[in-house]
Amino acid sequence: MAAFDTTRPAPFGAISIFRFVQFVSDAYLTVANWNDARVTRNALGKLSDRELDDIGLCRGDVEMIGR
């Protein structure tokens, strides 16, 4: 039975590139989540008190829903 050494060091700069891509990806997800919350708050803010009551919310809950 042969044994192979499967551990090799990463190529030069690979870890730095990975961390940069991960940072950009995390930043994109943060902005996307913020935008989704903003759109939700705006849509709920346009509803009347009667419409909000129909879905079980009050005007004060709109800010908490977006978070």
From TrEMBL:
Database matches in InterPro entries: YjiS-like
Superkingdom: Bacteria
Protein name: DUF1127 domain-containing protein
Domain YjiS-like: 30-63
Pfam families noted in UniProt: YjiS-like
